[in-house]
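Anyone? Bumping this.
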Amino acid sequence: MTNFIFKFPSPFTKNTKKPKISIILLDKSDFPNWVKKQDERLQIQIAQNSFKAEPLQTVAILDKYSKLEKIIFGLSQPAYYLDTASIVQHIESNYSKEFIEEHVFEIVSTHEEGVSNKISIGWGLGAYRFDPYKKNDTATPILLWPANADEKEVTATIEAISLLRNLVNTPPNDLGTDELANAAKEVAKHHKAKIKIIHDDDLIKKNFPMIYNVGKASPRRPQLVDIKWGDSSHPKVTIVGKGIIYDTGGLNLKPGQYMRDMKKDMGGAAHALGVAWMLMALNVPIQLRVLLPIAENSVAGNSYRPGDILPTRKGLTVEIEDTDAEGRLVLSDALTYACEENPDLLIDFATLTGAARVGVGYDIPAFFSNNDNYIDELRHSSVEKDDFVWPFPLWDGYNSNLDGDISDIRNEGTGRAGHIEAALFLQRFITPKTDWIHLDCFAWEKNGKAGRPKGGADTGMRAIAQFIKDKYS
Ligand SMILES: [Zn+2]
């Protein structure tokens, strides 16, 4: 077991005898009044550093022995959830390991709960490392819990994001289908949820032909994870996550530059587990189910082929246009299975199409819903949580692009809007009375910034967790 998947940062403390260094967080608009009230030594240092409390601007104030006394920092307006990760970065790059370990940091300005939570989450994410494969000897600065922070919510958020990142970052040689299923087992065990796994040939016996066919060419056998948690009298929320542990493209092999980061093709499953972690940790009154179709899209003599016509759990036949459009295939069986239990809300996360990235770039998941009310509600939650998502239409006009010549449907449309066609493909497997949201997300940070290093990243996870909490709490 890759134990580091469940290694989460916890750079907070409650009591300490260590000497404290204060941190003052300022809004730019409050700065002129604030600075007037400070003593001369502080004013000189502020002026000397041209500090104006611009967003993310940082100044270290020294005492008369030139020892670090305070850090003054400009918050974004409104405060952004990664702001304080820049302070962690500042401390780590400017002070020695010994100095950091001998002190504790304390935010002395007070903020309302929402801002305090963001301040704490930013600090926690600033302390995130993925270092099982490369030794990292930096010390993590420890923060006294900020006043008004909801410690449970903050901890659940940091853990869920770290879990997601660790899962996506783990290289594909160490995260096969069994290992991803084992991680799901750990999540279930931690939160006392029930878990069932349908494995390999049993997928055929129990009628999940698509999950089996996509994954059959890999020695790392396909499986379907089914987690259930919560009181059966509560609303039933089912979350499905695409778990392709590696996507070569199959016989429609991806060119090297597009295959390079395909360990992240299980990012949907990582999102589903992350959301589940948050909802269970916060004991949200729902009946939660998580379904993860897990497979490796590999090349071998028994790979499924372009031109194959394959059955689905629902009974529809699909002609394979392209073996690299495998995500929608494994999802089709999982979504059919989900709808058989009539959930009140069905959500799926998938790293699905390049078209979504052309449309809204890497950071913004494209989302779709068959319930128009959810479009504004989810956008509202996404803005509240600094986790922006944007809607696209399930436009019926493109549905015929998916019609097969000699099969019910084809796995790739004939039009240009690949993300819309992929969503319409999935919709064929959703019962019309089921409220459904589909997120086509990237699950990856391309450039890296304080609190959000290059690699596995949440895209839409916090927005969905908030949406569910708003709806059912
Ligand atoms: Zn693919």
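Late reply, but here is one note on the structure posted above: The mean pLDDT is 97.
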